[in-house]
Amino acid sequence: MAKETYMMASEFVLNKSRSSELIIPNTKLETDVVAQSIKIESGRQLADIKISSKNLNVYYGDNHVLKNINMSIASNSITAFIGPSGCGKSTYLRVFNRMNDLIDSFNMNGKVEVDGFDIYDKSVETDELRKKIGMVFQKPNPFPKSIYENVAYGLKIQGIKKKSVLDDAVEKSLKQAALWEEVKSDLKKSALALSGGQQQRLCIARTLAVEPSVILMDEPTSALDPIASAKIEDLMTELKDQYTIIVVTHNMQQASRVSDYTAFFYMGDLIEFSDTKSMFLNPKKERTQNYITGRFG
Amino acid sequence: MSSQVIEILQEKRLRSQKSDNPFVARSHYARLNKFRDNSFKIVGIISTLFGLAVLGYFLIDIFIDGVSRINWDFLTSLPSRKAEKAGILPAWTGSAWILGLTTLIALPLGVAAGIYFEEYAKKNRFNHLLEVNIANLAGVPSIIYGILGLEVFVRIMGFGETLLSGAFTLALLILPIIIVATREAIKAVPNTLREASYGLGASKWQTIKWQVLPAASGGILTGTILALSRAVGETAPLIVIGALAYVPFVPSSPMDSFTVLPMQIFNWTSRPQAAFLVNAAAAIIILLVITFILNGIAIYLRNKWQKKLI
To answer: How many domains does chain A have?
Structure first.
């Protein structure tokens, strides 16, 4: 476990906290510090830290898109990233499953850990990482295949061929994604024939089938109507018992409704990160206040 | 609008006050514009009809000359010195062999190169140079490919004056077209599809094999078929590598010598007897039918593919 990472993270949390009693001597075990500080801030039971980044800088060519980000994300919770377009929140999200690696001009330094393991270590295979850290995209992007094939794809590419195993996984994942009842009669139907909201839940089911522990969601409801969005939000709340969810959203109400923690990004800087309630009721930075009240961005 | 502009416009309008309706074009300039509009339309129609009329005249002429000559015997007979007995069996089987072998050679090479450029190659100067040169290759005259084929395949590689040499030569000729078509088809595959696949832990090759290629296959096939319909009409490179004008047998292996339909047509049209010209017309009809069928398949695939992606 990277002690330093936790220290940085804890410092960040501590710096923002209102009460001075949160300053805990450095001699104490660092993991406890983080756990305690977040626990105190959010007022709820806190599990472990799932993901942390330390001194993370990201560049696209000469463009410095993320500046020295230190942050810890609690497991089995929903963390929302908010901020105006181009603030780096999507880039940060894509750091966690190394999706940025697909971009030629991408460059970064710093450390990113999942479960205490450095995911940018040379020995890490991005394929294996992405099986553990699933992703749901902005626009529903089912494969132009049947519903069944969409969900089974992630398992088939891992060499699983046995039909009974695939059948079970497909059913389980579709049930988890609250889509089973709507599609069970015709799994052979093309996924493209589904509505936008159903397609997005199919994409979630497809992600769940691979059994990740983290789900990254990049504006998952921005292409959906309010009713379909509400279904996705309910689903997120249900899933957080088993998964760590990080969601990028432009919808302030959505962030305040579903998330446990919220991080506000602006121009590549992490401006504020705390539990959602205090972020929205009592933001500490003026810029955060201006953004969440709609005065800019 | 500045007052000066309004003045000019009003003046123009006053010049020909025929109607009260303010939306009627009154000014000289507006009417000139309308005239230009209409005249370009007519120029466009004439341009379109020019090409079609020449092609139509040609088709009708050929059809009148040749259609009565087409029968089962014509398709199944060997060439002969007597025009009435001569058939195109070696020619069309030779063309079919060439088509098949050329596809087998050019399709895998072209698709693999196209995939490399779109999915693997880094966007650097060297690869850009390669890309430009491949586009240039598509414009090299076919006779040059024939000379290349003669040297490389017939002589150096020792294939001789055979179907195989012909197929390799034509494969080189259409390779640039297939590469370009593959690249365009792969470019048209939405990136969201790749991201979805990578996001589930698929490797690059799995993503290409299961998502990119199936989505691009319509475009690749369309391009390949159009390239083949060009290859089936090629004569010059095959003459150079030594396709025979008179082949009294049906080729049975890639190492046989051969002729193709365009060669047979060329041969017959150079004979003095009128009856051979009729044979040539009939053979042209067969060649055109093959080309139209290939193009028809290409159009069908393109439409089917477009619907699928939407």
So the answer is: 1
Residues B293 and B223 grouped into a single domain? yes
Chain A positions in Cβ-Cβ contact with residue B309 (cut-off 8 Å): 144
Both B141 and B277 in one domain: the answer is yes
Chain B, nearest residue to A139 by Cα: B192
Best of A96, A132, A153 to disrupt the B interface (most B CBs within 10 Å) is A153
Q: What percent of chain B has pLDDT over 90?
A: 44
**How far does the CA of residue A184 sit from the closest CA of chain B (Å)?**
23
Closest alpha carbon within chain A to B209: A157
Of B50, B69, B88, the one marking the end of a domain is B69
- The predicted pLDDT at position A29 comes to 38
pLDDT (tens digit per residue) in A95-152: 999 999 988 899 999 999 999 899 999 999 999 999 999 999 999 999 999 999 999 9
What is the ipTM metric for this complex? 0.81
Please say which residue of B18, B39, B69 terminates a domain.
Answer: B69
B61 plus B80 within the same structural domain? no
Counted residue by residue, chain B has a size of 310
Shortest Cα distance, chain A CAs vs residue B117, angstroms: 14
Residues B210 and B256 in one domain: yes
Place of tokens 């259409």: B174
DSSP string for residues in B46-92: HHHHHHHHHHHHHHHHHHHHHGGG-SHHHHHPPP-SSTTT---HHHH
Inter-chain CB proximity A143 and B201 less than 8 Å: no
Give the per-residue pLDDT at B13.
63
The answer to whether position A297 is within a domain reads no
Q: Which domain holds residue B13?
A: 3-69
Pseudo-torsion of CA B103, B294, B224, B107, nearest 10°? Answer: -20
CATH code of A42's domain: 3.40.50.300
